[in-house]
């Protein structure tokens, strides 16, 4: 008689929140989550923030294990800053279209074609790109960082052309842009946003600088995810059209329950204002990662050391 082997399916505790909390204590772990994560993950996290806030938390944590509920480049940044700590990412496939739009060999050739340029790279890039950069920035400090570079110094800005163009407008600097973009932020429909503005004349439109210029043109305020949250809290307006990944709306509703938030619609009739990479992480995968101690982020030491210096320069320049 043959016995059919079935793949082992993991069993999950009934109360995943409680189980994850127990594991946190057992492992002396901290859960850092980005605003684009599923609401449950945001609720179980110890800290939620934008890329700069998350990097700062990763740099200063005393926890032995960092569980990164975000995408690969974020967890990788935490590992670059903490080589002796274990950094877990619930799903190793959680990448980033923007980071992928800048392959290291092509970028090395681009850099070589522009000698004497300082390389400012947006944190949404791989460790290999960070290692080729002079300074890293995030959407919350990009304008400041570029303003600190002497005016006569030519600059390469990579990999997001939309953030790069926005920084050029804000600083008046000319920069050589790498032509990368984010699949979520380039997908918002200008036409549908204008329609929403007509339907909700009382609402203020706020947008992330990764959006296309045609969308940013209609925004009253442009900023990082944390800056959008802060703006919505302090604005006199009661409702907002929000042009960034829709996960932030959970945090906006939670922190500012007396105001209304309308997600900006993508061009197609799809859920394309959700980042498919960010959303690969689930509560189940978070639980399993902590229970099994895997998937863990590792990277070659020479790349880590080369990528560390430009991140540290950013942290020092934006403290
Ligand atoms: P911030 O949270 O830094 O604004 O970045 C948004 C983003 O696209 C992260 O992938
Ligand atoms: Fe990357 Fe865009 Fe997803 Fe952010 S929202 S992780 S930039 S693909």
SSE inventory with pairings:
Blueprint: H1 16-27, E1 29-34, H2 39-44, E2 47-49, H3 51-60, E3 65-69, H4 72-81, E4 86-88, H5 97-100, H6 104-112, E5 118-122, H7 127-131, E6 135-137, H8 142-147, E7 155-158, H9 161-171, E8 176-177, H10 190-199, E9 204-207, H11 213-216, E10 221-222, H12 225-234, E11 239-243, H13 248-255, E12 260-263, H14 283-292, H15 301-317
Parallel strand pairs: 1-2, 1-3, 3-4, 5-6, 5-7, 7-8, 9-10, 9-11, 11-12
Bound molecules: 1,3-dihydroxyacetonephosphate (13P) and iron/sulfur cluster.
Question: What tags apply to this protein structure?
Answer:
319 residues; alpha/beta; Rossmann fold; 4-stranded parallel beta sheet; 15 helices; 12 strands
Question: Nutshell version of this structure?
Answer:
With 319 residues, this protein is an alpha/beta fold.
